[in-house]
Amino acid sequence: MLNKVPEVTAIFWAIKILSTTVGETGADYLAVHVGLGASLTAICLTGLLVAALLTQLRRRAYVPWIYWLTVVLVSIVGTQLTDLLTDKLDISLYISTAAFACALAATFALWFSVERTLSIHSIVTTRRELFYWTAILFTFALGTAAGDLSAEALGLGFQLGVVAFSALIAAVAVSYHFGANPVLTFWLAYILTRPLGASLGDLLSQSREYGGIGLGTIQTSIGFLSIIVGLVAWVTFEGDGARRAGPAQ
C-alpha cells in the first residue's frame, strides 16, 4: 500500500483551512436555513462520512478528491458533534474541550503504543489509517470546542478570532522552523486551523449586524467549495504526480 495522505505543503494548509470554513458554514446552512436541525444534519452527514471513509480505506493509494471529500465531511460532522453536546445536551464547553483533548491524547497514545510512530508521512496500512482519521475527527471536535470556549471566555469577535488564531498558527510555524518536534507542531497547527476556519467562515457569512461581512452561508460555502475543487483538481493533475509515484517515506 502506498502512502494514503498528501504531503504537508502550502496547498495542504490552504485546503485544510477552507474545508474547516465550509464545515462551519455548511453545517449552519443545512441545520438552520434548510431546516434539517442539528440532529438530522448530523445523522445524514455522518452517513455520508462513513461512505466516504470506506471509499478512502478501500483505495491502495492517495486519491486527492476522496481524501479531501472525507476531510470536508469530517469537518462538518465534527462541528455538529460539538454543537450537539453544547446546544442540545447543555454540556459545558470546558467539559467538552477537556473530554476531546483527552480522547485525542488517548488516540495518540494508543497509536504510538501499537505502531511506535505518529508520522503522518507513513500512513501505509489500514490500521495506521484508522488511527489517522480518528485523530483528525477529534482535532476537529477539539478545535471547535476550544475555539468556541476561547471566543466565549475572552469575548473574541469574528475579526479578533481570525487575528488571534492566525497569530497562534504563525507561532507554531516559527517554532517548527526553529526545530520543534514536527509531529507535535503538525497536530497543533491542525487543531488551530479549525477555530481559524470557523472564525473566518463566521466573519464572511454572518450579517453586519453581528459583526460579519454579510455574504451569507450559501455564498460563502459555494465560494470556498469552488476554491477547494480548483485546488484539489490542480493537485490531482499537476502537483502530486511525482509524490504518488514515489516510495512511502
Distance between the termini: 12 Å
Mean pLDDT over all positions: 83
Q: How much of the sequence is in beta strands?
A: under 5%
User: What is the CA-based Rg, rounded?
Assistant: 18 Å
Query: Which regions contain 5 or more consecutive residues with pLDDT less than 50?
Result: none
Summarize the helix and strand pattern as letters. HHHHHHHHH
Q: Main sheet, how many strands, which sense, barrel?
A: none
Structural class of the helix and strand makeup?
mainly alpha
User: What percent of the residues sit in helical stretches (DSSP H or I)?
Assistant: over 70%
**Based on CA inertia axes, which overall geometry fits?**
globular
Beta strand count: 0
Put simply, the count of helices is 9
Helix and strand topology:
Layout: H1 10-33, H2 37-58, H3 64-88, H4 93-115, H5 126-154, H6 158-177, H7 182-205, H8 217-239, H9 241-245
InterPro entries: DUF347
Keywords: Membrane, Transmembrane, Transmembrane helix
Organism: Bradyrhizobium guangzhouense
Descriptive report:
The protein is an all-alpha fold. The chain is built from 9 helices and no strands. α1 runs antiparallel to α8 (217-239) and α2 packs antiparallel against α3. The longest helix has 29 residues, at 126-154. The protein is globular. The two termini are 12 Å apart.
Descriptors for this entry?
mainly alpha; 249 residues; DUF347
The gist of it:
This protein is an all-alpha fold and 249 residues long.
